[in-house]
Amino acid sequence: MAKYHLNLAHLYGNLLNTYSDVGNIIVLRYYAKQMDADIAVQVISISQEFDPAKFDLALFGGGQDYEQFVVSKDLPNKRTEIKQFIDDQKPLLAICGGYQLLGQYYIGANGEKIPGLNILPHYTLSQDHNRFIGNITIKNEQTGDEYHGFENHNGMTFLGDGERPLGKVISGHGNNGQDKTEGAIYKEVYCSYFHGPILTRNGEIAKHLLLAALHKKYPNEDFSNQEQLIIKPTF
Ligand code: GLN
């Protein structure tokens, strides 16, 4: 029996799971175990209620334009609750399509405007007959950590006020192929175009998300031992 218990909401996990973004949950559990924590997972999808008070962290994965369009129709029903979760400084990992949908809007590959939650200020345009596909390396300029991954997206995302990039592009395309930014950080929301899933190769992000969730849920506990956990991915 683990000492700490976390509840994770997998937002639209049955629809948005491109390139196995669900693997991020396996990685979170792997590191959580080393922190004496377990994670219960619940998929929250179309027409299902999302109660932010019941969850300690969340995952919002990527998808194809069609699924994103389906999800966008349901988002207004959950906007207040998702915003509450984010404003409460609870950690949320958003990948590709989920990242796009947290922002103002996404212009799909066929030119259709897919409205987002408009909680984060970024917006996403479409490229003409092109996708950004391939390996990517970025550097988190706050921590100095390098992150490695694989990107595959049509969308070109432009960040807005109050969010900073997850990292600076060292090689690859990143948010838009123009400004050398990749992903976004806003409060405890971590966004990225990395699939594959991102946390397998970038355990430091998993560790950060878990510690943010643990500190929030157990404010009187001392997690300094867990903070010293050395991240050694074995995947
Ligand atoms: N459909 C979106 C795009 O192409 C997101 C893709 C994804 O999640 N991989 O930009």
Summary, kept brief:
This protein is of the alpha/beta class and 235 residues long.
Which helices and strands, and how do they pair?
Blueprint: E1 4-11, H1 23-34, E2 37-44, E3 57-60, H2 65-87, E4 92-95, H3 97-102, E5 105-107, E6 113-115, E7 123-125, E8 132-139, E9 146-153, E10 156-158, E11 167-171, E12 181-182, E13 184-186, E14 189-192, E15 194-195, H4 198-201, H5 203-217, H6 224-227
Parallel strand pairs: 1-2, 1-3, 3-4, 4-14
Antiparallel strand pairs: 5-6, 7-10, 8-9, 8-11, 9-15, 11-12, 13-14
Helix pairs in contact: 1-5
Bound molecules: glutamine.
Structural summary, described in words:
This protein is α/β, with parallel strands linked by helices. Helices cover 27% and strands 29% of the residues. The strands form 4 sheets. It has a 6-stranded mixed beta sheet with strand order 2-1-3-4-14-13. Helix 1 crosses helix 5 (203-217). The longest helix has 23 residues, at 65-87. The structure holds glutamine. The site of glutamine (GLN) has 12 residues, from helix 2 and strand 9. Glutamine binds next to helix 2 and strand 9.
Strand content: 25-35%
**Separation, N- and C-terminal Cα atoms:** 24 Å
What's the main sheet like?
A: 6 strands, mixed
The SSE string, one letter per element, is EHEEHEHEEEEEEEEEEEHHH
Could you tell me the number of beta strands?
Answer: 15
Structural class: alpha/beta
* Ligands: glutamine
User: What general outline do the C-alpha atoms trace?
Assistant: globular
Count of DSSP H/I helices: 6
Mean pLDDT: 95
Pfam families: GATase_3 (PF07685)
Keywords: Cell shape, Cell wall biogenesis/degradation, Glutamine amidotransferase, Hydrolase, Ligase, Peptidoglycan synthesis
Family: Belongs to the CobB/CobQ family. GatD subfamily.
Subunit structure: Forms a heterodimer with MurT.
